Amino acid sequence: MDPGLVQLYDALVGAMGPEDVFGTLETADGGSRDEALDATFRRLARACHPDRFHGSSDPDERDVAGEAFRRLTSFRGRAEVKLANGTWGQRDAPDLPAGEETMEVKTARKTYRVATRPFVEGDVGPLYRGTCLEGDGPDSRVVLKLAREAEDNDLVRNEARVLGRLKGTPSAQSKHLPVLLDQFKSGDRNGVVLREIDAFDGTTLREKLPAGVPAEHAAWILARLLSVLGFAHSKGVVHGNVEPAHVMVHPPDHNVFVIDWTAAVVEPARTGEGFRTLNELYSPPEVGERKPPVPASDLYSAGKTMVTLLGGDPATGELPASVPGRLARILSFMTLPSPRQRAQDAWEIYREVGLAREELYGPHSFVEFRV
Questions:
Q1: Among 3.40.50.2300, 3.30.70.260, 3.30.200.20, 1.10.150.130, what is the CATH number of 102-195?
Q2: pLDDT at site 98
Q3: Pick the CATH number of 3-85 from 1.10.260, 3.40.50, 1.10.3120, 1.10.287
Q4: CA–CA dist 300, 340 (Å, integer)
Q5: What does the CA dihedral 11, 16, 20, 24 come to, rounded to 10 degrees?
Q6: Which residue of 116, 246, 265, 267 pairs with 273 in a disulfide if CB–CB is 3.0 to 4.6 A?
Q7: pLDDT at 92
Q8: CB atoms closer than 10 angstroms to residue 260
Q9: What pLDDT was estimated at residue 41?
Q10: What does residue 219 show for φ and ψ, rounded to 5 degrees?
Q11: Residue 303 CA to its chain's centroid (Å)
């Protein structure tokens, strides 16, 4: 992949505001900031414009270029607004809801205003909503995850390690992963700062749709979930705890995020790392049997997760009659008890889902998903 594109994509993903992308916009020759913005935008656009990569044989490179250019264009729009209203360089983060008691958390890099009460108790510890005081606009919204006890520090550190590994190689799947912004300590407990994700987790989505997610929409959710797992597996990472609460869906743009990588294992065949958690409904049999993690383990959990989203019973695998047979067979193959007999390759199943979608619903097109 083009190294200039990789460097720019990394910078755009990590940027908290337009100032992080375009700099101070001060010019040596006394030109205006608007002129400096235009010149900087054109320079950066040359590095990532989709037309430049249109003929690339690498589909990931084409997707990364498209995503980078969309982000760059969005930051330019925000920069123009700030220049017009005279707020360039000001990073006033939006406040938390009125009446919310807050505290400040300072790290070596940033300062965060954080609610004193968690909004949810996660598997590893509480999660707090907050804002980055050096951030700007929606990109300043963050979530702080803190280990419940010092004994859970290794899981929090593990998530940071795994996300760093996955983000080390930009790809089309990067937009489906959490963005790790910072790390901190509170007493003897470790914490991480993640960019807030504006999406429904699978558990909430299921509650909002009592009959289950319609199969046509479940198919693209499954495809995106498989693409994330396929990418992770190619980097030697097994998620280890795929379940509805760890799959987030943003209906307006059909984006899917796979979150909570605290239980992930890296290159288990080489490192000897084993499963870190047992989820009674969604973990494959090999977890309880203390067998080594394999990519097929994630596929089992992903299949059970989709059974739940479709309105079925993850314990039995039973699906509503409305689910097309071809999609049901794919899920059945993903959830066979034996890891040797079930689906092995996320990308292979991804292609099968794509063919099934086309057969069932025609050529791929954007269909609005309302929740």
A1: 3.30.200.20
A2: 62
A3: 1.10.287
A4: 12
A5: 170
A6: 265
A7: 58
A8: 25
A9: 94
A10: -65, -45
A11: 19
CB-count exposure of residue 364 (10 Å: 0-12, 13-18, 19+): exposed
Two tokens at 187? 């007493």
pTM (predicted TM-score): 0.83
Instruction: Check residue 237 and give its pLDDT.
Output: 98
Mean pLDDT by groups of 10 residues along the chain of 371 residues: 84 82 81 89 93 82 85 91 87 63 90 91 93 74 95 97 89 88 94 93 95 96 96 97 96 90 97 96 97 97 98 97 97 97 96 94 84 86
pLDDT at 180: 93
pLDDT of residue 210: 93
The alpha-helical segments, DSSP class H, found in the chain are 3-14, 18-22, 33-48, 59-85, 153-167, 202-208, 215-234, 268-271, 285-288, 295-309, 325-334, 346-361
Find where tokens 């998530």 sit: 159
Residue 285 structure tokens: 């049999």
Structure tokens that stand for 191 in this block: 């914490």
Helix (H) or strand (E) segment spanning residue 113:
strand 111-115
CA distances (Å), origin 116, targets 99, 100, 104, 146, 359: 11, 8, 9, 12, 51
pLDDT score at 253: 79
Distance CA 58, CA 267 (A): 25
Please report, as a single letter, which amino acid is at residue 308.
T
Q: Where are the domains of the chain?
A: 3-85, 102-195, 200-361
pLDDT at 87: 86
